[in-house]
């Protein structure tokens, strides 16, 4: 079958089209291109079909390069489950320290409730909270904020107080629940560290007299 002739000016496009026409081609395939010149100088190019009688013919074999492999999106990382149960799936624990067989467990570790200068609170296991930089209001040119004002801050220490013994179980449970929330809904890049922290806190809770019932 005779291919449709191409004008000389379309030579580059023709050669590129040969490589792009089969985007899913598995291996390179040799293709024969014929350059046909008529007596009046008109030039056409034909694919796999020799020139007609009376036309000057030049034959060239071109290997069409194999296309790049189709893009395959990487599989999403498999999130490792925790080595301990999720506290949100366990039955609610009775308030206060538990009695009975579990009373032989150790008392829960001490907790300190710490308040930040912005009014937020958090728990930690010691009262030595590291100081944090509290931003200061600055002014720039003409006493206006934002006009070359720069930035400044002062070191500020969080105020931490020991949680009373009667409130330790509730504080520990809240801390573990917050750790579970940070692990499950926090930034993806920090979830491994958040999971490890959740496992540590949950294990400490379950080893104490504040332990949740297994079922």
Automatic annotation (TrEMBL):
In which domain of life is the source organism classified? Answer: Bacteria
| Annotated keywords | Signal
- Signal peptide range: 1-27
The name this protein carries in UniProt is: DUF4124 domain-containing protein
This chain's source organism reads Luteimonas deserti
> Which taxonomic lineage is given here?
Bacteria, Pseudomonadati, Pseudomonadota, Gammaproteobacteria, Lysobacterales
